[in-house]
Amino acid sequence: MIASHEIETRLREAAEGFLREKKVDIFLGYEKASFPFRTSPLFLSAAEKARRLVWNPFCTANLAVYLPRLFKAPADARAAKVAPPPPTVGVVVKGCDTRSVIALIQERQVPRDKLVLVGVACPGMMDARKAERALGSREALGAGEDAQGNLRAVVEDGTEVTLRREDVLADACLECRSPTPSIHDVLLGSPVEAKETDAARRRTAEFESKPADVRWARLQQALAKCIRCNACRQACPMCYCKDCLLDQTRPRWVGAGTDISDVTLYHLVRAFHMAGRCTECGACARACPMGIDARLLVRKLNLEVEDLFGYRPGAAVDAAPLLSAFTMDDPQEFLTEP
Amino acid sequence: MIDKRIPHTDLDRLLDRLGKRGAVYAPAKDEAGEAVLAAWPQSGPAVLEYRNFRLSPKALVLPQNQTLMCFKNGDVAEPALSDRETFLFGVRPCDARAMLALDKVFLGGDQHDPYYARRRAKMAVIALACARPTSSCFCTSVGGGPGDAAGADVLALTLDADLLLGAATAKGRELLASVADLLTDAPPAAVKEAEEQIQAAENQMAPVNVDNIALRLRDAYDSPLWETASQKCLGCGTCSYLCPTCHCFDITDDVRGGTVRRVRTWDCCAYPLFTLHASGHNPRPTAKERWRQRMMHKFRYAAENFDQLFCVGCGRCIRNCPVSMDLRTVLKEVGA
């Protein structure tokens, strides 16, 4: 779509300006990958390299994941004396990414005043794996968006294949309720309205409607593919603990192998640690090399949080994180179950 | 070397025959339609239309988790090592070659891993040559090729309605002899066409320059390129876990009730805890040191210690990295 190209031009101008005027020390965006259907995160520090920035439907990565490491606090008072001041970071953020940034600000992991947020109203991102599956054993040599917003790929023998947008949009994008960044220093693209605002609820209800043994079987089947690579955790902007519970060896809370009880425990623990913190960006599912939909459990927990406490993570910068605060009229019927 | 022929339609019979002798793994499609190396027999015929499997076959010689021994009440028990033969059909030449790299680590020198050795000794590999490399393939640049038989006992190749076969080792000769009644001789014209197919596949791959890469890496140890190259690495482990030559492992004791199981699991040098010392010191504290280590291990230390690059050009790390890191780009920058 022409809009993508316009946004790309304005994005490059904005980044170049911020870097040249030293309004930011580093600018995070996306650049072309060596492969179709993908982009790669770009860490820019030179204004003249801003031309490398791209904007297209493959800008899927949630760049908020890099923010905690850029603002890591010094280890102790001695280190603090010689530590350089924190950088000012410019970053391209879609709607979901912005919520992650807000959630990180809420949890005091990144300071708002050291961020320059270049928000882009997002029409949805395309999933590389879905596109590749649709092509079967044909390999794409190049791909781009056409004027109708569909994906047009050129395959090895030179033929063009068109994949319908709705068939290649990422699962997380099909359920998106926050396409437009709610906070920003610059906003590119006209605000996008969320389309199917009850998609997450419907999908969760559909799964919940099945009997318990069917649900358990489906979960085990999905988790049986897990190779415990931790990609889901590493890709998640909200997983920034220096010492992850799931890695600890003294004591070893969760075994490191693929024993189904260890795998299930890993995912359950992660889901519970994400309740009220996950901003539904889908980075976990995208990172998983085995194609497990890591969002299944957390989506349910997030909806419970919304229903019980009226809270959505990453909605307001000055909101206290859910589990850090309480009010006297918090619902507690579930505490008094006999 | 290719000298035998069997029609595609008879492949299942060959696999069934091997199935009488031991466990067989052959290509299948999973519920998402992706090719996987799965236990035979399957619900349908063996699949021959695929590029490569997402997971490498290394899990069959080096499982993701493996019990090495158990302790209970002061007694040590070792799990019985399987005596069963295993036949892998449809492994690509890059993955077959990777087994040789793993052999150097687990069988060579003064280390002899009995758990690995037993599985490997009982394994026969029937590699399937590639007719259509992908844009992430670069086996020819790292000493391999789409029709390379290194690491395979039998090399197979699809040609029209036939599967051509040839033994590459004594084990392969024995294997083909055991199913000789299913095979006919491959006519010279077919063998020639097979060679042309392999040549065409070789020509399709864009070369990656690894000349003197070990020396270039040694000289680039302190280069600023590692800082920029590693910035986007998430430390997620996907590259190592999918890589057919990556073999680093962790050993932990799993205590349940009164029994302690000593378990070996896959580990990854990109993880922050990989080199964390008991003192708390970590000689590879950031992604930069860890990414540099990954490249050094595969392209320098392996070359220096084993005379073989620990990269077979399968491209899995490039295709599956969630942030699309490409080690070919880094190789180009080293010593540039």
What's a concise summary of this model?
Chain A is built from 13 helices and 8 strands. Chain A is α/β, with parallel strands linked by helices and 338 residues long.
Report on the architecture of this protein:
Chain A is α/β, with parallel strands linked by helices and 338 residues long. Helix content of chain A is 35%, strand content 12%. Chain A contains 13 helices and eight strands. Chain A has a five-stranded mixed beta sheet. Chain A has a three-stranded antiparallel beta sheet with strand order 5-6-7. In chain A, a hairpin with a 4-residue loop joins strand 6 (151-155) and strand 7 (160-163). Chain A is globular and about 65 Å long. The model of chain A has no long low-confidence stretch (mean pLDDT 92). Chain B has 336 residues and is of the alpha+beta class. Chain B has two domains: 4-204, no CATH class; 213-333, no CATH class. Chain B is built from eleven helices and twelve strands. Chain B is globular, with a radius of gyration of 21 Å. Chain B starts with a strand and ends with a helix. The relative contact order of chain B is 0.16. Chain A binds chain B through residues 33-35, 38-43, 61, 65-66, 133, 136-137, 139, 141, 156, 227-231, 233-235, 247, 249, 252, 255-259, 283, 286-287, 289-291, and chain B through 32-34, 49-51, 54-55, 64-65, 132, 134-136, 228, 231-232, 234-238, 240-242, 250, 252, 254-255, 263, 265-266, 268, 271, 273, 318-320, 322-326, 328-329.
